[in-house]
## 1
Amino acid sequence: MVNRVADERNVLESFLDFHRAMLLRKVRDLSDADAARRLVPSATTLAGLVKHLTVVERSWFHILLDPAPGEAFPTTEQAALASFTLTGSDTVESLAADYERVCARSREVAARFDLDHVVPHPQLGEVSLRWILVHLVEETARHVGHADILRELTDGATGSV
């Protein structure tokens, strides 16, 4: 549940955690085939959304805030589209577990910085942790909305599945 009376940081982190959990709820009880099924003209699938948001978390929190030597923030449209692409070894279980691990590390990385901490971004110039958190709330919530629609098209489930 989102903390409605906390300070700014806790509100932002609560909203992000809420949407992270909702994404996982949308895929947890689906078969691998259902999660990978294309139901719209684009390559967007429920499993692909989990994979994409895993890449988003890594990019914004791990690579931007705590880069390993040689890591670069993905900046091409091709990289974004590739992040939705499933492989033969991708399962609901493996994708969800990877997403949970990456989100846990994202929390750890973000906790080391204050909201005003600024880092360079290859396309935007500079961004603060505050901006990154707001952006991740927006990006995750938008894709959870997509997941809502795809889940309803899959088996009719709606709401907080």
## 2
Amino acid sequence: MKEQFVAKRIVNIGLIFLVAIGVSVIAGMMGRMYLDQLLGMGALTVLFMVLFAFLLIYERKRKKISNNRETDYGKILKGFLLSAILTVIFLFLPEFTSPVMILPILMSAVGTYELAVCSSFFFCTVLEMAKGCQSYEILCCTMLLLSGFMIAHMLEDTRNKMWCLILIFAVAVLIPVLFSYFFYQEPHYDILGKAAIGAAVTDLAAAFVYPFLTKQKEAEIDNFLTDITEEDYGLLRELKKFSRQEYRHALRVSGIAEKCAYIVGADAAVCKAAGLYYRIGILDGDSMVENGVARAQNHCFPEKVTEILSEYYGIEKMPSTIESAIVQIVDGMIKKLEALEKTSKIAGGWNKEMVIYQTLNEFSAQGLYDQSGLSMNMFLKIREYLVKEEALRL
């Protein structure tokens, strides 16, 4: 599919930029920086945001963000904002006591490890610049971040959870204590207590916040599929306003495609959503395929749904998945029956059965499903179900 700029993504990248600028300004003011220093930090922030934006785009195209090329960066924005808030809180903490390990753990939960590395080092850079760039504290911060990245990898396996929590607590206490000793050349027991509190907070984030955010990221596509099939979804309301007939057609295709998917073990949620929007390009007139794909991309539909819309009746490319074949079969079948109902007013189940058999056999003979993975057994199951499906009886 052709890549295009999408408003939701541009807005979210812009908001991430504003958050980064906000953190830099707050840090600079709290660090009592001079105007030229503030401008320098602003330039550093702009440079970071350019790199971060390119990394976001690159990771999305690699399907590393929620395994979906059409993501809108919404989860990344929330994680970035949470990290920014924590960074501002860290500005008020004494030296060597900021639990910065929490930053890579949280960002890796909502995005990728590359994004976590980039954002965490940016926030720590701003933090240390505001605090005066003491060498030992910078080293302490760096060691904590590196430890956070490594432990975040291990947190993916829930079997390691207890060991990870123990390791987090030990590292988050020992590293600040050691570097404070290197700096002061004497032990500071108050730092030990404050570091222990920070370690406990990091443990709580790893134990509860990290799995929650990870589940949210993994469920992003499923949640979005549910959202776009709700009756009050904006694009669906627009279709209903455009044509009641098209809206009813979409509902029928969606419901029957979902049932067919269950019968053959395909992704029913994808078929339900794709069935609703299979003909959405009609809202913009000619070039239904191109218009439909553009609509889906502008709303950041999951890639599987957008792909099905791009394979509309094999006009530009043949159906490449079982779900795409199912939606085309059901839409074609219903469209044929609706046309016959208007012209010939056929009555009697046997006539409709004959039309169904004949139409589906024609689709199959055209080779529409050769690249979809739809087996003959699946095709026959779908055909038999459509013959019996009451919703096809107009």
## 3
Amino acid sequence: MSPSSSIVAAAGLLILTACSQGQRSDQQAGGPYASASATTDGRSAGTPVPVPDSSASFTLSAVAEFDNPFSVAFLPDGRALVTEKPGHIKIWKRGEQPVDVGGVPAVEYGGQGGLLDIAPAPTFAADRGIYFSYSEPGSGGSALALAHATLDESGASPRLTGLKVIFHQQPPGGGGQFGSIIAFAPDGQSLFLSSGERQRKTPAQDPNSALGKILHMTLDGKPAPDNPYLSAGGERAYIWSSGHRNPYGLTFDAAGNLWEIEMGPKGGDELNLILKGRNYGWPVVSNGDNYDGSPIPDHDTHPEFEPPKLWWNPSISPAGLVIWSGSDFPQWRGSAIMGALSGQALVRAKLNGTDAQKVDRWDMGMRIRDVAQSPDGSLWLLQDGDNGKLMRAVPK
């Protein structure tokens, strides 16, 4: 596909934040997006956004703005679903303003909690099903919840119908670090859900807790029949892998390998190859340190734990992960592309089977919350913050 016509530098400066946990939002000058022009291939040209890194092989074109967005997921027709942490789902269509979706349940919004990931079901074209995760309010605190609903667009405005919560992490309580990322198995018959340890550390090693785990379940929310601890029942029956801190990216590559990114403490962010029944060590081991500066044993001191394929020190706070297969950047195919919050970057790692290598890190001058590939093979980034932009990466 051809890049959009010449892009000029945008006026206005971004007012940035460098906090690593997403508890404060970016704010920046914004403009009207409804008047965005269209390119000859039918895409919205949007508003140019400067990329500070001159080595980047792309420019950015912003097409819409959202209130503390968390996740973007494309539908088969090229429209996108975007979640806003305060509790809104919006549908964005190129060249148009985002439209609110009704019927969204109440969420516990604050800090890292709220309306989180969203994904169209593998059967969306036939049944209009979507899945989404959120921090569910309750008398004992919040809990990670996963829901399924139908996107009904038969009326004057779109809304969710037939909503059913298919998984509740128990017990509820305080803390951030929900994880919450949804990934469907390559055969479309089951799903994986990343569950953070809610800043409580020890539950990540508790075999009977769903906290700090990668969970595997059927599309209706039951433990998947091939789970390693299925016979144990309870939350343990859902566990696929354990010892995770805050997994903010989860996806499969073309060979069927499951990859995950997670935030470490003070340093030690990880890219992991997720294997059935394996323990990834948190909080016993980490390639970072505690926030008070006290050391944590490195992974190589405990060979019983699965080590990361890559790690970052100091932290970049990775969030959003795709294994690239699009047409816009053919030279990146097979790479892991991820955003960085505190690192304010877009990061590329080259995958070679089950090995990984750091290759690119572009300074974006803003916190990147999510990364997505659209059906037409273009790359999209979602900026974190009060006025977080949805942006297309346009090849130079």
